[in-house]
Amino acid sequence: MAVRCFVLLFALLLCFVQSVPVVLESSSNQTINIDEAIKATGYYDREHRPVFEHMEGMDWQHVLDLSECNIKQQDIIEDAFHTAAYVILIPTILDGGKIDLNNAWNRFFMNDNEAAWGYGWTTRGDRGRVNKDAFEAIVGNFRKAATFYPTGYVEGHWVQRSQIHRLKVRCKEVYEIGRCESRNTAAYVTEPLKDEDGQWAMTICPKWFTRRVESIVDVGKMWKTLDNLPQMMSREHVILHEWMHCDLPKFRQHIKDELWFGGPVNGAANSHDFAWVNAFRSDQITPAEKPAINLRVETNADNYAWYLTNRWFEKLIEWRDPSRGRDI
Ligand SMILES: [Zn+2]
Fold first, then answer.
1. Where are the domains of the chain?
2. Å from CA of 257 to ligand 1 middle
3. Could you tell me where the DSSP H helices lie in the chain?
4. Closest to 202 in 3D by CA, of 182, 172, 177
5. Which residues surround ligand 1, an ion (CB under 5 A)?
6. pTM for this model (two decimals)
7. CA of 311 to the centre of ligand 1 (A)
8. Any idea which fold 51-316 has?
9. What pLDDT digit, counting tens, does each position of 97-137 carry?
10. How distant is the alpha carbon of residue 247 from its chain centre?
């Protein structure tokens, strides 16, 4: 299964690079037609259904307005959202929903076996129930995002979605003017109250289009080991992060940037430390001091985005991960 997943992802990567149909040999000598493989996921293929005519969870009206987004920006947006839609499929489609059986989970959410008995995600008892509910919410949140943005489905239902139920994308700052000037802001999501049509909106800042942020495909060519994960920020990573802030997929709770030590939890190292904040308690005298998971990761956007980025690179490049997700 792992081999087949790798072949599929590698094939998807090839599709980004060249948009002609690609045929690869799998290890079992079974020929895989990439277009067929992509269609089998239930999503779209780029050649026949371009991003701007598909992705039922998104509203592209402002992107397609040349007075707002120029041709070059349109191209970058189409490419990045197309790739982001594949990255977000990894937990549900390629990993079959088993999101906690890999190093990326340990790194950004923490494995059960790192916690004391009764303090993990899937243990029993009263605390166990709370933790398990949070675990299932996180699994559900990945699934909901992976379903809503490409298809417009929410909780198993699809209606011809009115514009108001789509996330609109903007190249110009109209909601919180000046927010793009902050050094770390490449994009941001605003709630319906701020928009003249009452929609959720994602504003893409000028720096997202520049070489300061690369595509995830180019990032994968530059870095080859896990040691560089904190630098492996990509345009797609920004999209995945912002997608988690929008409530349209009906996540269990609103997903924000959690505050910790006076600042938002952003970046791979910070997100990892946040997930592991309760892990290194050596003095186990009282229950509160036992190594435990951190429930707040459920509502921190960058833990989701880094998990997805980590999984993507695990699948695509020669990934050396000696710490098995315990370090960064
Ligand atoms: Zn954020």
1. 1-40, 51-316
2. 5
3. 2-17, 34-40, 71-87, 103-108, 125-151, 206-209, 216-222, 235-245, 268-275, 301-316
4. 172
5. 257, 301
6. 0.85
7. 20
8. Collagenase (Catalytic Domain) (3.40.390)
9. 889 989 999 999 999 999 988 889 987 777 788 999 999 99
10. 15
